[in-house]
Amino acid sequence: MMKCVICKHGETKPGLVTVTLERDECIIVLKKVLAEICDNCGEYYLNNAITEQVLGKAESAIKNGAELEIIKYVA
């Protein structure tokens, strides 16, 4: 748990979020990504390992020519 750096009021708690990434004409949506979520403003934070996994899945989808990819991601 940490203090939210965006709103400076909330505390983060573990939960699941949807991450949307966009590059050029490609949109990647990853559902059910483990994150720390602010209980005040809803901002979320991914740890380094999860970030690497998310970016890896997005890169793979882009390399496969996806224009829109929705990935049910369970961390």
Overall description:
This protein has one domain: Ubiquitin-like (UB roll). Helix content is 21%, strand content 43%. The protein contains 1 helix and 4 strands, in the order βββαβ. The longest helix is centred in the last third of the chain and has 16 residues.
Fold topology:
Blueprint (H helix, E strand, L loop, with lengths): L11 E12 L2 E13 L5 E2 L2 H16 L4 E5 L3
Parallel strand pairs: 2-4
Antiparallel strand pairs: 1-2, 2-3
CATH topology grouping: Ubiquitin-like (UB roll)
Assign an overall shape: elongated
- Estimate the mean pLDDT confidence: 93
Report Rg.
Answer: 14 Å
Number of strands: 4
Which structural category fits the helices and strands? alpha+beta
As residue ranges, the low-confidence spans are none
Using the coordinates above, name the CATH class.
Alpha Beta
Corresponding CATH architecture: Roll
Number of domain units:
1
> Helical element count?
1
Helical content stands at 10-25%
Series of secondary-structure elements, N-terminal to C-terminal: EEEHE
Main beta-sheet annotation: 4 strands, mixed
Proportion of residues in extended strands: 35-45%
Distance between the termini: 18 Å
Produce a short descriptive summary.
This protein has 75 residues and is an alpha+beta fold. The chain contains one helix and four strands, in the order βββαβ.
What are the salient characteristics of this protein?
1 helix, Ubiquitin-like (UB roll), about 80 residues
